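Translate sequence into structure tokens.
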Amino acid sequence: MAVSVLKVLLITLVLVVAIFVALFIWTRLQVAQIEQAHPPQGQFVELSNGRLHFVDLQARGDLPPILFIHGASGNLNDQRVAYENALSGTGRLIFIDRPGHGYSDRAGADDPAKQADIYAQFLSEIGVESAIIVCHSLGCASAAAMAVNHPDRVQGLVFVAPATHEWPGGVTWYYDIASLPIIGWLFTETLTLPFGRVGLDSGVASVFKPNKPVPDYASDSAVKLVLRPQTFRHNAHDVATLKAFVTRFQPRYESIAAPTEIITGDSDDVVLPEIHSVGLERDIAGAQMTVLPGVGHKPDYIATDVVVGAIRRVAAQSIAQSVER
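Result follows.
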């Protein structure tokens, strides 16, 4: 009897290992296909701990340089698709893959303040003294950190559906699992890509709701890049550790002096506007908040013209301040 039980356990173990090996190999093949479908679109700059991938669209115009910082689960294509046409010919537009996302190295930047340090170094490397920072969602935590720690690099701020303040509750369970040391590696190397592909459309719909996703958003924004195991782990770490970071850092927002606008949808249930957007308006002197009725977490796509208007107002305030000085 004991021998039979042992045999069953051994067969079960072999089957489980075989399944995981098969999923690991399948994941490697899928990663190659994803990267072939969505290769790097821009340039790379070497920084102190790695390289950053970016698209730099230089044009003569009336606006200062603008640095776009995407949120969780994204890459530079998310912001580029939203703004490139709307701002074409207005000035220098710089879209970056956040550290560990898209095709940028992690470069040791595992919290928003360290990512802000990377952005400051990056601007220096490409010859930009300062820029207007336009951010979305989780990317706004590093934009705010940049304004606090590198104020000379920030001419103005446009926060879009920002995630910047402590909130009640936690995050979705798979972010916590994926950010664990060993279990997270096994999880992301075998399971996140197959399950992520199945849930991709519903995930996009949940980010846009109650609005309809724009046509071809998933393919145009190359969102599948986040399903690659290492990228998914970086993304999970960013999400899972954000609350602890902003809880420590948010008291410092009151030092931000750059012209600031906040754009939020009143139907955003990804990040709660009454906590984050209202918090920024309260903490940053002179910040102006626009609340969009019936808009969810993607004002950058659903109300692009409103964000562009905010960018222009921030630019005008920034230029006026520089003249006064």
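Note: The longest strand covers residues 50-57.
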